[in-house]
């Protein structure tokens, strides 16, 4: 009998295709897993409201871990691990010097010094009845950003100047009370201390009374490393970097664009 009781899935580069949607095939297989009693978690760096909406498109039983573990479902409770205000002020002071774009994200709100950017600010989600309070606040002054940014669970910082970004990251890493994680070569994420996908998974699995050894994790990126570190069995997507693939127990046969997650889940849960 398959020992795995839960599956944790990254979104971008894993469950999502290139159009950032979940295919019908993946949806059907996820529902079949849920019907067999498998706990399904979407584990993403994306904001809570976005991740929760994607879960709702599959099945209301899907739970979410968002913002790299900064905000997540724990039964009927939403856990928020907020960055201390003092840390936010220090980070904003660093950003004032480099002028690097950054997006400060709470459970349902995004703040930025920059002009509106649809890639990061999600104002379109205001139109959804599930999220009546979702809002973006672009074009804030640095002082307004300090004043308005409350209950922030994750900050996304990016800069196409890689040298500048590396120096900025080193400076921010020196701030007590935060965790810094890589996302790609031109960006990094900031969370509160000890916040990551792995620690969030530990918390929800303890709540569910599911041993970590019975957790299957599937992902493709550097921010999935903490998830891979705690899960009982890990699978990297074949479209992941070689360095990520080497960390995992196996590599998917199909990419995210070819419904690789569907094939994995069928093999582990539905063809028994």
Draw up the topology in text.
Layout: E1 6-9, H1 11-15, H2 24-35, E2 39-43, H3 48-56, E3 63-66, E4 71-74, E5 77-80, H4 85-98, E6 102-105, E7 109-111, H5 118-121, E8 135-137, H6 142-148, E9 154-158, H7 162-173, E10 178-184, E11 187-192, H8 197-208, E12 215-219, H9 225-230, E13 233-236, H10 242-247, E14 250-251, H11 260-270
Parallel strand pairs: 1-2, 1-12, 2-3, 7-8, 12-13, 13-14
Antiparallel strand pairs: 3-4, 4-5, 6-7, 6-9, 9-11, 10-11
Helix pairs in contact: 2-11, 4-7
What does this 3D model show about the protein?
The chain is of the alpha/beta class. It has two domains: about 5-80 and about 195-270, Rossmann fold (3-Layer(aba) Sandwich), CATH 3.40.50.1000; about 85-190, Hypothetical Protein, Haloacid Dehalogenase-like Hydrolase, Chain: A, domain 2, CATH 3.30.1240. Helix content is about 35%, strand content about 20%. The protein has helices spanning about 10-15, 25-35, 50-55, 85-100, 120, 140-150, 160-175, 195-210, 225-230, 240-245, 260-270, and strands at about 5-10, 40-45, 65, 70-75, 75-80, 100-105, 110, 135, 155-160, 180-185, 185-190, 215-220, 235, 250. The protein has an eight-stranded mixed beta sheet with strand order 5-4-3-2-1-12-13-14, with helices on both faces. Strands 8-7-6-9-11-10 form a six-stranded mixed beta sheet, with helices on one face. Helix 2 (about 25-35) packs parallel to helix 11 and helix 4 packs antiparallel against helix 7. The chain is globular. The N and C termini lie close together (about 10 Å). About 45% of the residues are buried. The model has no long low-confidence stretch (mean pLDDT about 95).
């Amino acid at each position: 009998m398959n020992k795995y009781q839960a599956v944790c899935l990254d979104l971008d580069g894993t469950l999502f295709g290139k159009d950032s949607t979940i295919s019908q095939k993946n949806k059907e297989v996820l529902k079949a897993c849920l019907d067999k009693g498998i706990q399904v978690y979407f584990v993403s760096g994306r904001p809570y409201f976005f991740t929760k909406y994607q879960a709702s498109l599959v099945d209301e039983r899907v739970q979410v871990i968002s913002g790299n573990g900064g905000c997540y479902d724990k039964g009927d409770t939403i856990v928020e691990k907020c960055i201390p205000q003092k840390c936010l002020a220090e980070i904003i002071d660093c950003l004032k010097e480099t002028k690097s774009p950054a997006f400060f994200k709470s459970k349902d709100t995004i703040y930025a010094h920059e002009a509106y950017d649809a890639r990061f600010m999600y104002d379109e989600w205001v139109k959804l009845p599930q999220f009546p309070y979702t809002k973006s606040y672009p074009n804030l002054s640095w002082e307004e950003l300090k004043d308005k940014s409350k209950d922030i669970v994750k900050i996304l910082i990016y800069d196409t100047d890689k040298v500048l970004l590396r120096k900025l990251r080193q400076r921010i890493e020196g701030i007590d009370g935060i965790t810094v994680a890589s996302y790609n070569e031109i960006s990094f994420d900031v969370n509160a201390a000890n916040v990551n996908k792995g620690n969030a998974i530990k918390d929800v699995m303890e709540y569910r009374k599911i041993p970590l050894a019975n957790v299957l994790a599937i992902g493709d990126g550097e921010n999935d490393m903490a998830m891979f570190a705690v899960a009982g069995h890990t699978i990297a997507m074949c479209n992941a970097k070689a360095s990520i693939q080497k960390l995992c127990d196996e590599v998917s046969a199909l990419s995210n664009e070819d419904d690789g997650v569907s094939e994995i889940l069928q093999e582990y849960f539905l063809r028994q």
